UniProtKB/TrEMBL annotation:
Organism phylogeny: Eukaryota, Metazoa, Spiralia, Lophotrochozoa, Mollusca
Name of the protein this chain belongs to: Sulfotransferase domain-containing protein
Disulfide bonds, paired cysteine numbers: C347-C359
Organism: Elysia crispata (lettuce slug)
Sulfotransferase domain: residues covered: 150-386
Positions contributing to 3'-phosphoadenylyl sulfate binding: K364, G365, V366, K367, H368
Molecular function per GO: [heparan sulfate]-glucosamine 3-sulfotransferase activity
Length: 407
C-alpha cells in the first residue's frame, strides 16, 4: 500500500506554508498522520534553504517521490525515488523502519536506514505520537488500513460550500475524505468501471473511520440517486444549499470576465430579458426539483441538509451536527476553525497539527460581479416558488430573500 507526498512539514525557524507543499498528486490530501495518527513525520531543512522559496519549490518535487508503505501497525517502510528524474526506474530497495522499539523520536538518516538516499540537507524525523494523544484516535488494534466504499457522500449542491465542507470533515480523525470529485454515480464512463474501481480510488481507512467523497454533480443528476441506492441503501447523504441567486453569483465569479456573466442566467434575445431556464447555472438552484428525485429512493432523515452561509459563518456548530449525523465522536470544535480576516473565511487548524493553519484554495471565496437591481429582482421572483416548495419538502426555511441579500 503506497502513500505519496503525505503529511510532511518542513520545520525550520520559518515554517513554510502548507500550500507550498501541495503537489499535483491527487492523493495529496490523504495524509499519513490520519492513517497513522500515532506517527508524526517531519522533514527538516536548514533555515537558509527554507528562505529561498524558489529553491524550495524544486525540493517539493523531491518530496513527492518519497513513498511510505505500511507494513504493520508499528512498521513503515520508505521507498525513495529521489535519486533520479524518472521515479519508475530509480527505485532504491524498500527500507523498513520498525517503530516498536522507538519510544520517542527516530531521526532517519542514511546511516539509520542503509541504502536510503537522502538529500544531504534533509533529514526525516519520525515520532511516535500514540503516547501523546491516544485519546484523539488510535486505529483498531492489529488492523491494517484498507480502501473502503464511502459511508457518506456530499452530493451537492455545487457552488454552495461543498469543498469547504469536505475539508472541514476531513479534519476529523474518524473521517477520511477522498479529495477528488469522483463523479462515479452520474457518469456512464465511470459506472462501467464498476464498484471495484470506485473502491480502489478511495483513500485508506480503518474500519472505525467513515470514508467520504464529494461530487456536486450527483445532486442534479437523474442517474445518481438510483445508482447510489443500488450500491448502498444505507449510505448517508449530505446536501449543502445556499440562496440560489448567490449560487449563480458564485458561478459568475468563476468566469474569466465575471462582468459578462449575464449570459449564464439571462436570455436577452427578445424584447424583454428573461431568466434562462435552460441553463445549468439556473437549474442547479432548483433544489426542490432535484431533491424530489432523491426522495423517491432515500427518506429525508438520511439526507443531512445544511445551509451554505451557515457553514461560512459558523463552521464549528455545523460540523458538530454532522458529527452526530455521521455517528463519529464529537472531536471538532471552534479551536479547529480560525477566522482569516484577509480571506473573509474560516481556515482550518488540524487536530494533530494545530500550529498549521490551512485555508481553502484562493479560487474559493472570490469576488462576485454586482447584480443590477432589476436583474436581482427578476432572479428572486423566479426562484421564490421553487424555494417555497423546497422549504415545504424539508420542513425548514432559509432566509433567501432580496431584502436580506447582499448582492
Ligand atoms: N472556509 C471557506 N473558504 C472559502 N470558501 C468557502 C469557505 N466556506 C464556504 N465557502 C464557500 O464555498 C463556495 C464554493 O462552493 P463549492 O466548494 O461547493 O464550489 S464547487 O462546486 O466545488 O466549485 C464559495 O463561494 P464564493 O464565495 O461565491 O466563491 C464560498 O463562499
Amino acid at each position: 500500500v503506497a502513500f505519496k507526498d503525505l503529511d510532511v512539514t518542513v520545520l525550520s525557524r520559518h515554517i513554510v506554508p502548507y500550500s507550498h507543499l501541495k503537489s499535483e498528486d491527487p492523493h495529496h490530501n490523504s495524509s499519513l498522520h490520519r492513517i497513522y495518527p500515532h506517527l508524526l513525520i517531519e522533514s527538516s531543512v536548514t533555515q537558509e534553504e527554507s528562505l529561498d522559496l524558489t529553491k524550495f519549490k524544486q525540493r517539493r518535487d523531491i518530496l513527492r517521490w518519497i513513498d511510505f508503505f505500511v507494513k504493520g501497525p508499528d512498521q513503515l517502510s520508505l521507498w525513495d525515488h529521489t535519486t533520479g528524474s524518472d521515479p519508475g526506474t530509480h527505485k532504491v530497495p524498500q527500507n523498513n523502519i520498525n517503530f516498536s522499539n522507538v519510544t520517542d523520536v527516530l531521526t532517519v538518516t542514511e546511516a539509520t536506514v542503509p541504502g536510503l538516499y537522502l538529500h544531504s540537507n534533509w533529514h526525516w524525523t519520525l515520532t511516535r505520537r500514540g503516547d501523546f494523544d491516544p485519546t484523539v484516535y488510535s486505529p483498531p488494534t492489529g488492523e491494517l488500513p484498507a480502501q473502503r466504499l464511502p459511508k457518506a457522500i456530499i452530493i451537492g449542491a455545487g457552488m454552495c460550500g461543498t469543498r469547504a465542507l469536505l475539508e472541514y470533515l476531513n479534519l476529523h480523525p474518524n473521517i477520511v475524505a477522498e479529495a477528488r470529485e469522483m463523479n462515479f454515480f452520474n457518469d456512464e464512463q465511470n459506472l462501467v468501471r464498476g464498484l471495484t474501481w470506485y473502491r480502489a480510488s478511495m483513500p485508506l481507512s480503518y474500519s472505525d473511520q467513515v470514508t467520504i467523497e464529494k461530487s456536486p454533480a450527483y445532486f442534479p443528476s437523474w442517474r445518481a440517486p438510483a445508482e447510489i441506492f443500488r450500491a448502498d441503501k444505507t449510505i448517508k447523504l449530505i446536501l449543502v444549499v445556499k440562496d440560489p441567486v448567490h449560487r449563480i453569483m458564485t458561478q459568475a465569479g468563476k468566469l474569466i470576465n465575471p462582468e459578462h456573466s449575464e449570459r449564464l442566467y439571462l436570455n436577452t434575445k427578445g424584447t424583454t430579458p428573461r431568466v434562462r431556464k435552460d441553463s445549468n447555472t439556473v437549474s442547479g438552484g432548483l433544489y426542490a426539483q432535484h431533491l424530489e428525485r432523491w426522495l423517491t429512493f432515500f427518506p429525508l432523515p438520511q439526507i443531512h441538509i445544511l445551509e451554505g452561509q451557515d457553514l461560512v459563518r459558523q463552521p464549528a456548530s455545523e460540523v458538530h451536527e454532522l458529527e452526530t449525523f455521521l455517528g463519529v465522536p464529537h472531536v471538532l470544535n471552534h479551536y479547529n476553525f480560525m477566522y482569516n480576516t484577509s480571506r473573509g473565511f474560516f481556515c482550518m487548524k488540524p487536530v494533530y497539527r494545530p500550529f498549521r493553519t490551512r485555508c481553502l484554495d484562493s479560487n474559493k471565496g472570490v469576488k462576485h460581479p454586482r447584480l443590477k437591481p432589476w436583474v436581482s429582482r427578476m432572479l428572486y421572483d423566479f426562484y421564490r416558488p421553487h424555494n417555497e416548495k423546497f422549504f415545504a419538502m424539508i420542513g425548514r426555511r432559509f432566509n433567501w430573500t432580496l431584502e436580506i441579500s447582499t448582492l
